Amino acid sequence: MALATIAGQxxxxxxxxxxxxxxxxxxxxILMETLQNERPDVVGFSGMAFQYDCNxxxxxxxxxxxKRIKTVLGGYHATLSYDTIEGSAGADYWDxxxxxxxxxxxxxxxxxxxxxxxxxxxxxxxSYKTENRQFHHNAPRPLEDVTKIKLPARDKRIIKDFHMxxxxxxxxxxxxxxxxxxxxxxxxxxxxSSIRQYPLERVLADIEDAYxxxxxxxxxxxDNITQNMERFEELIDGVISLKLKNLHFTTQATxxxxxxxxxxxxxxxxxxxxxxFLGIENASAKNLRAxxxxxxxxxxxxxxxxxxxxxxxxxxxxxNGLPTDDPESMRENYRFIKxxxxxxxxxxxxxxxxxxxxxDNMLRDGQIQxxxxxxxxxxxxxxxxxxxxxxxxxxxxxxxxxREIIGMWRPxxxxxxxxxxxxxLWMFGLRYVIWVNExxxxxxxxxxGRYKLQMxxxxxxxxxxxxxxxVERTDSYHPVYGTSDDPFxxxxxxxxxxxLKFSWRKLLDTPRTSGPxxxxxxxxxxxxxxxxxxAIRPEPIRPETARPESIIPVSLLSNQQPVAxxxxxxTLVTIASPRMQ
Length: 581
Ligand code: B12
Ligand code: SF4
Fold this sequence. Notes:
Elements: H1 2-8, H2 27-38, E1 42-46, H3 52-65, E2 70-74, H4 76-86, E3 96-98, H5 105-114, E4 126-129, E5 135-137, E6 163-164, E7 167-172, E8 175-177, H6 187-191, E9 195-197, H7 200-212, E10 217-220, H8 229-242, E11 248-253, H9 255-260, H10 262-265, H11 268-271, E12 273-281, H12 285-290, H13 297-309, E13 313-320, H14 327-339, E14 344-349, H15 357-364, H16 391-405, H17 413-418, H18 420-461, H19 492-499, H20 554-557, H21 571-574, H22 577-580
Parallel strand pairs: 1-2, 2-3, 7-10, 10-11, 11-12, 12-13, 13-14
Antiparallel strand pairs: 3-4, 4-5, 6-7, 8-9
Bound molecules: cobalamin and iron/sulfur cluster.
């Protein structure tokens, strides 16, 4: 959304948008191919906190391709952490940082570069390198007037093939900001306490544009589309009046909006809204207060029930890992969600994103284990401890409790109504395959081994194997072990070796010809001028400390509800990443 919107505001430069999210493991070849074909002068990168290492790796590859290319970093992490990026070893790979909204600042920056840097000081929100390689930060940029923001330039996308629920998908934005103050949320550092709504005509034109380009499922990126329910109702009426056939919508929403205005829910199916990501967050009143979430259990139940009455699929947003959480309080969360008949869950572990009030509180209380290795700041991995659990215990406990209580995905009435194809496929085939696969993996590797394999799989999703010279990690944190061990230490083979007690175990001891993990892309030697000498450090030597076989306390391993009897399954199916992204 960000990149296409920025491109939509620029008509005096040739701009292309390359969203590499759908490319996954082909991301690097596609990036290199695009650099080769397009020969750009400037390349901008966008990312959240957990994508920063990946952004940096790609900026390095871009500079390797042609060191004359100017690199620009924008987005959430750039805005919230520009001051720490500035002093870091990777700072040399960035020429500019754009803080805050980039809709107009990126175009202004390009204009200034065209004019040999004239007027650069006047581009608000931009930080640029000075002669002594430090950043100069221009004054911050006030929030943009959204009525001036033109439609995203979807025609400038190189990759156009986005899918959601097996349909061609696209994203639209109807407003920016939120007036609530949940303490884990990054929104206020970006937009302050504000909400700006696009004119309705612009939103409807945006929907028609996405539809005319083939989109049949649209995701609304609004932070809080239900902040103003009268306006949301107008929007729904507007969408109905467009009479676009076979178009589905999904949006994020608050419990408060729907529970207080249930009459609006009745119109949702007619407008094509099939699933709602509901910010429930927790089933404990104490935890909701701790995170300053304006929810309570009665409101949550009401919002879910009203949505279910209309057969709308509820995707429950849940956060575990609050300061006083223990296995029992997490069990409570999952039980509560299950009791409400919800089976699609997007559950996160509390993550102390930079500059949030939550981070300050947790820092004060010594609860953050990982302060700076942002690769694990995606909500799936633990970076914090609770009063009862270490980060590694929290991680395993969450995984195991979810598996026991929620288990495999069970379709709701809404799924049968709106996602027939997938639901039939799941019910009459896929779920048996996954169930058998899970039982086999569990028998082979044990429950702890299965957990480690799944974590390893998720860790690799965000690892593109780019080694950036001068940016060796000395602060590495392992989200599964809580130490600076090699994050990819456990493989199928090593776990199997540990588990097998019989004689043919020695068969596995024969030396392998290929390593368990692909070699990282070997970097070309970097020209001296692109790296500061002090940034080049030798690879840190990690002591081979003997580790106990198990990191998990016995109390968590002993099944309170036996896994073998539950319908525990592959969380990939229900964690929503394959279906949401
Ligand atoms: C929609 C959304 C999603 C969707 C994405 C759908 C899609 N395919 O686009 C889904 C639901 C998948 C999602 C998932 C997650 N999200 Co999210 N998401 C958002 C949300 C609500 C809107 C993003 C958006 O498109 N905004 C509209 C565009 C126009 O705004 P923008 O991205 O900020 O871009 C502007 C500026 O940042 C800047 N800019 C951005 N990039 C660049 C690049 C350049 C070069 C320049 C110059 C400027 C620039 O200019 C843009 C225009 O003004 C934001 C909150 C928000 N308001 O942005 C959270 C947000 C980005 N998400 C967040 C998080 C944490 C996540 C998850 C990790 C949560 C989780 N554990 O599940 C996952 C990650 C999933 C993954 N693997 O990628 C956090 C990021 C926190 C942080 N500090 O990094 C945010 C900020 C939510 C929050 N309030 O805390 N998310
Ligand atoms: S309601 Fe959502 S967008 Fe608003 S502050 Fe809370 S988490 Fe952030």
